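User: I need a structural model of 2,3,4,5-tetrahydropyridine-2,6-dicarboxylate N-acetyltransferase from Halalkalicoccus paucihalophilus for a docking pre-check later this week. Nothing fancy, just the predicted structure tokens so I can convert them on my end. Input:
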Amino acid sequence: MLREIERAVVENPVTNAILFNELTGSIGQYFEAARYRREYARYRRKYDVDPTFRFNGPGILLYGDGDIKLGADSYIGRYSRIQAESGRTVRIGRNTAVSHFVFCYTRNRIADQDMSVAPNTNDDLAVNEGDTTVGDDCWIGAFTFLTEGVSVGENTVIGANAVVTNDLPPHAIAAGVPARVRRFKSYLSDEETGTLATEYADALSDDLAGEYR
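Assistant: Understood. Predicted structure tokens for 2,3,4,5-tetrahydropyridine-2,6-dicarboxylate N-acetyltransferase:
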């Protein structure tokens, strides 16, 4: 009976295709995982990565000749990117969650210029550069873009799909394009939120700014 079942499986082209795909898929996943393990080990050697920092998933890219400092008990999600130009630094603090498809750069083209000067290279184009910092205990939502030179204060949450173009205060919840503070965390006193609202007036949403006028 078992031989008859085995023969039926082997002779059935549909079953054969399923078994082949399962086998080759598993092998492919094994080699892909091994490749990323080697790549992440290389990042740990090249950059300042705490031993407890986690690379969660495939496709994470760290590159550039600058400094990348990744803190203890933090992680970065799949297909995220961190770029550090020579002489620049990206810092991710302790206990910070960076979700998948998050992009963090220290150098970017200035939009308001004639791109035809150098259509295929960056050599003759004006750029902005700056260190980029994310504080301790933060949560950066998926598909967020952190532009060059920005700083995110400790214990701040940034909602998914945000573009951070200015410094964000600590203990805040921010979202949007560009990212703006929607509210401060509820454990802060009125005095504390008032001080932060004054210090980071340019980072507040219109609705929140109206509350502090």
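Before docking, keep this in mind: The chain has two domains: 1-46, 48-212.
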